[in-house]
């Protein structure tokens, strides 16, 4: 039983060592945050310098290349110069001796035939006879030359037509029928929050372990790759080769998904939409071995 006049002792104030330790801990946390911010800023600045340097090199090459053209020796011109025939000696006492023909330098002869701009090359392809280049070959060469000028947004599948699947969706007959009827082969997968967590391919459905009770999350591929909608097709081709991916989700500068680009779309743009080859035995080894060329 405590006496009536008992006064509890106030809690002991922290010692100087405890205060110093707290201040040191707070200071260390602040230093860590500042260091992380500086490191992130340096990484972003380094990436910016790398992009700027590549952009500068491309522009400098595009600017300097026409200026160096007069100083280059082309194989065709060099061979013409070395094979120029010598004029035949003339005999002044014989008036019947034919005059020696005059020859122009190879550079002046070939200058009229050498294309000077990209438009000249396209004009040559247009005027070439059809027994030299078919229409499909013309389109292929034109599309190949246009790779740096065409943007991903021009050939991508719009975001409104992308077919998504939920991670918890059961791979029953209705789901498989819906995916097959869409005509696509790649399907991005969303979780409950609507975030993209991977993709599935129609070849995944052929797995023997898949049953009617299997879920999409059981077979999804977590690997997703992105390209921006203002990338050129040349940059998209580099990304395909770099990642070995079959499709990319296309985003804008703010990270919003604006479309989908598959390698089939890229090849269809480059080689044409209606290939004449209808051979469908690519999965049969003997059919490929015995196929007529």
Output the keywords.
293 residues, alpha/beta, CBS-domain, four-stranded mixed β-sheet, three-stranded mixed β-sheet, flat
Structure in words:
The structure is a single chain. The protein is α/β, with parallel strands linked by helices and 293 residues long. Among the domains are: 22-63; 117-146; 152-271, CBS-domain, CATH 3.10.580.10. It is built from nine helices and seven strands. The chain has helices spanning 16-68, 75-82, 106-110, 118-127, 135-145, 173-181, 233-243, 263-271, 285-289, and strands spanning 157-158, 165-166, 186-190, 196-201, 226-228, 247-251, 257-262. The strands form two sheets. It has a four-stranded mixed β-sheet with strand order 1-7-6-5. It has a three-stranded mixed β-sheet with strand order 2-3-4, with no helix packed on it. Strand 5 (226-228), helix 7 and strand 6 form a beta-alpha-beta unit. The longest helix is centred in the N-terminal third of the chain and has 53 residues, at 16-68. It starts with 15 loop residues before the first helix and ends with a helix.
Summarize the structure.
This protein is α/β, with parallel strands linked by helices. 41% of the residues lie in helices and 10% in strands.
Specify the biggest β-sheet: 4 strands, mixed
Note the beta-strand portion. 5-15%
Helices and strands: which structural class? Answer: alpha/beta
> What would CATH call the class of the domain at 152-271?
Alpha Beta
- Globular, elongated, flat, extended or rod-shaped: what is the shape? flat
Radius of gyration: 35 Å
Order of helices and strands: HHHHHEEHEEEHEEHH
Please name the CATH architecture of the domain at 152-271: Roll
Low-confidence stretches are 76-84, 100-111
Which fold does the CATH topology of the domain at 152-271 refer to?
Answer: CBS-domain
Helix run count: 9
Average pLDDT, all residues: 77
- What fraction, in percent, of the residue positions are helical? 40-55%
- End-to-end Cα distance, whole Å, is 108 Å
Major β-sheet strand ordering: 1-7-6-5
CATH superfamily of the domain at 152-271: CBS-domain
